[in-house]
Design a protein that fits this description.
Blueprint (H helix, E strand, L loop, with lengths): L9 H13 L5 E5 L6 H13 L4 H5 L6 E4 L16 H11 L9 E5 L9 H10 L5 E7 L7 H4 L3 E4 L18 H13 L6 H9 L3 H22 L20 H19 L4 H19 L1
Parallel strand pairs: 1-4, 1-5, 2-3, 3-4
């Protein structure tokens, strides 16, 4: 049940393994991704790796003293009420986190469906993050970044989880089509059409919408990925956008520079840089690359 049992999510696993190997991991992580993708399974496997071999069975039964799973529950006064993670649950987490590990090198707290925190719970959780207890790792499991206050997420290492394509399957990368992708492609084309104000217009349309900015950056990255595949003569079936990206007029250096710009824009958004500013800077950089090609 350790990390070696997890399949897919190579980028996330590399980050977690590096944290263990260097003993320089974050005191808090936010596992972000859609339901059913394996966030909780990976969190439990990470916990098992941290607390030591032979811990898997006890963790699975909820019997390990140094691994705690916090999940939404109904109010004590109403068993049929709305399930949530309440301030008393977070205060108890903080109290237990302040104690030394009972037997393992680390204590691990996994907060499943952290977006269900209500009332003062996020603020109480922030207090624990501001003064993290020694030898303690806390893992938040969320579907979206926007589900938690930025003050909380800024103190967490973001770990992204995406659907895993089955081995041997010939499939497009996630999000190859759909209205959001088409809108983002239209914006990218406008920005690269030498319209000086296009990047600013796109930025204004996105405003503070972090999800829209993430979709824009990811679409640009996938487009430039397709350009890279086209540069290498890859089969059209490897294309996310059905072979619509042509390598004509683009040098390899320009494509690589575009991918680098997309990566840096993504990192900026995850680092709480303004979504609008991140997209405007990205499109300006991609436009300059196109101008050089022309």
């Amino acid at each position: 049940m350790g990390l070696e049992s997890i399949r897919g999510h190579e980028e996330a696993l590399a980050l977690l393994r590096r944290a263990i190997e260097t003993d320089r991991g974050a005191h808090a992580y936010a596992f972000i991704g859609p339901e059913g993708v394996g966030r909780k399974t990976t969190a439990l496997a990470f916990a098992a790796t941290l607390v030591g071999a032979g811990s898997e069975a006890r963790i699975a039964r909820g019997m390990h003293p140094d691994v705690r799973l916090i999940e939404p529950t109904p109010p004590q006064s109403n068993p049929k009420g709305t399930q949530a993670i309440r301030v008393e649950n977070i205060r108890e987490l903080g109290r237990l986190a302040a104690l030394r590990p009972a037997e393992a090198p680390w204590k691990v707290f996994i907060v499943d469906q952290a977006e269900t925190m209500t009332g003062a719970a996020p603020q109480a959780f922030l207090k624990t993050l501001e003064e993290p207890p020694a030898r303690t790792v806390i893992i938040l499991i969320l579907e979206q970044l926007r589900a938690m206050p930025a003050t909380v997420l800024s103190r967490c290492q973001i770990v992204r989880f995406r659907p895993v394509v089955p081995e041997g399957a010939v499939a497009l990368l996630p999000g190859g089509g759909g209205p959001e992708r088409e809108r983002a492609l239209k914006w990218l084309a406008q920005a690269q059409s030498r319209d000086a104000g296009a990047a600013l217009q796109v930025g204004e349309a996105i405003g503070r919408d972090r999800e829209a900015a993430e979709a824009m950056v990811e679409t640009c990255w996938l487009w430039y990925r397709d350009l890279l595949c086209a540069q290498g003569g890859a089969d059209a079936r490897a294309s996310v956008f059905g072979g619509r990206a042509s390598a004509a007029g683009h040098t390899l250096d320009e494509v690589v520079a575009g991918l680098r710009a997309c990566r840096e824009a993504w990192q900026a958004i995850q680092g709480n840089v303004s979504p609008r500013l991140s997209v405007e800077v990205l499109l300006s950089r991609l436009t300059k690359s196109t101008d050089k090609a022309a």
